């Protein structure tokens, strides 16, 4: 159960007065998710009822959160289907609840598509490209906090838990990525605010129609190609082998490219970037597995899934970005 901080309707009686939403009339903890405490919140103003999501942030502090919430607001205002944060009476999007930062955002329709077909991947590709373009004039700056510097700092913390062969493999990949990040090709990659965690469980569909995406709490400024690689490594693979599925890769890349064409540097950087995206989640899963937080109550995600993907991305040439139909 991913509710680390208990919240009751009584707790909200006073607290809700700062929002223009009326009264809280129902509150239901959301079981999925491993980072924050999430609740479906029903409000009533006069005869009108509305549904929202209340999030109590367990690991992010008041300094980091405005970037995520303001980015969501920026995107929602530009027609990207993301939850719109609700400002309180003085315009704050993040406010304390039980001493922790909390926010109310609009609730998206639909449910996750955990067995995506090319038609779903095409929807994701279109939305991702539109999101990159819409975020490009977002004025706030915050790096991807799970980027290269975090990989370099986290590697020594997990190395002692790995077999000598895996420790060597991880060390070599971080060295490779450090060199890649210093290369002239990397320097030419277009960048901006990116989602950086656009997995199947963070996107909603009604049938084949994408209705929105959420969970912006790993967002940050990074290359657009990194975001695309994170997305492809989850949406377009065979989950058992980690291999890319050509039909889904083509659908996602073609629809992305139709909105935002790729540059030559991106074409060259695609394979190293697929490796970087796999490394990022191998490392975070290793860290969560071996160095659990005190508040952690859930089984962490399986790190070997991304170790397998990383080995597969190194072994098999990636499809050229410029060459697919
Ligand atoms: N705006 C929203 N609209 C509808 N449902 C939402 C919304 N935000 C969250 N949810 C629901 O809450 C669940 C948990 O949210 P989320 O994935 O953000 O959890 P988390 O613990 O913050 O993150 P993580 O995915 O990193 O574990 C989602 O699977 C989804 O069902
Ligand atoms: N998407 C991450 C979890 C954090 O959102 C993972 O699968 O490891």
Automatic annotation (TrEMBL):
It catalyses: L-homoserine + ATP = O-phospho-L-homoserine + ADP + H(+). Keywords: Amino-acid biosynthesis, ATP-binding, Kinase, Nucleotide-binding, Threonine biosynthesis, Transferase. Belongs to the pseudomonas-type ThrB family. It comes from Massilia litorea. Pathway: Amino-acid biosynthesis; L-threonine biosynthesis; L-threonine from L-aspartate: step 4/5. The keyword Iron-sulfur does not apply. The keyword Ribosomal protein does not apply. GO terms for biological process: threonine biosynthetic process. One of its GO terms (molecular function) is homoserine kinase activity. Gene3D superfamilies: 3.90.1200.10, Phosphorylase Kinase, domain 1 (3.30.200.20). Its EC number is 2.7.1.39. The lineage of its organism: Bacteria, Pseudomonadati, Pseudomonadota, Betaproteobacteria, Burkholderiales. Residues 27-262 form the Aminoglycoside phosphotransferase domain. It comes from the Bacteria. This is Homoserine kinase. It holds the Pfam family APH.
